[in-house]
Each structure stands twice: as structure tokens, then as C-alpha cells.
């Protein structure tokens, strides 16, 4: 990932925020599986209204604009650490449901989730060899099923 791309991503998000009339500070940094664009400042609260629909839309827009150039994994746009906090809550929920599936032998469901959230659940579940996960549904929002690894054998 080049510093130039980070600079352009930061400038792009800054320009979108300015066009929305938001007074924010934007920064871009590499993370383990891609790039995190962070937005700070009181003006960012507007992006978090209605269950962070504005933040989701901005993340979608940034990914659409920079996807072809950004080859170092995923682009995550976060505002006031909202996504970081929600991602950790979702990971903990996935781990808890995976443990419940393993202990009870019963399939657990989480969702409906967008593709970004489903990825977090699948990665968390993949860390437990006693369970597996799959997405079901035919729309943008899908449900993730977490099943004991030996459930197919009982089938």
C-alpha cells in the first residue's frame, strides 16, 4: 500500500465529509487485513445516526472508489470508534454462539447481517475447530448459521 493511496483516501473522505457540512478529522492507517480510515470530531456523530447508516454508506462508497487500487485487503471506515466497538461486540457474540453450538449440539443463528458483519462472524467462528459457519439467504442481508462440526455426520 502506498502512502499516496492513503493520502488520496483521506482526502476523499475529508471531501465527502466537507460536502456534508461535517467538521471532522480524517486519518488513514494500515491494519492487519487492510486499511482503516478513521473519522474523529463532533461532526462525525451525524454518520452514526440511524444505526450508523451514514457510516455504512460512506464505507461502501470508499470501497467502490478505491477497490481496484487497494490490493492489501479490506477497507474499513470507522467514526468515533463506533465500528471498532461494534465489531468487537459481534466477535464476542459469534464466539459465544459457537461455544453454545459446540456444547448443545444445536445450530445457532445470528443476523440478518450485511457482508462486512458476516465476515467478522465467519472469521471468529473459524478460530474454533469444533464448529462451522455458513451464510444463508438470497438478499444483501443474510443470516449466519453456526453449527457443531459433527452435525453433518449426524444429519
Overview of this structure, please?
It is a single chain. The chain has helices spanning 3-19, 49-66, 82-104, 115-126, 151-154, and strands at residues 25-31, 34-40, 74-79, 108-113, 131-136, 142-148. Helix 3 (82-104) crosses helix 4 (115-126). 25% of the residues are buried. It contains five helices and six strands, in the order H-E-E-H-E-H-E-H-E-E-H. The chain has a three-stranded mixed beta sheet with strand order 1-2-3, with helices on both faces. It has a three-stranded antiparallel beta sheet with strand order 4-6-5, with helices on one face. The longest helix is centred in the middle third of the chain and has 23 residues, at 82-104. It has 155 residues and is α+β, with helices and mostly antiparallel strands. The termini are far apart. It is 48% helix and 25% strand. The protein has two domains: 3-80, GMP Synthetase, Chain A, domain 3 (2-Layer Sandwich), CATH 3.30.300; 85-154, Ribosomal Protein S8, Chain: A, domain 1. Strand 2 (34-40), helix 2 and strand 3 form a beta-alpha-beta unit.
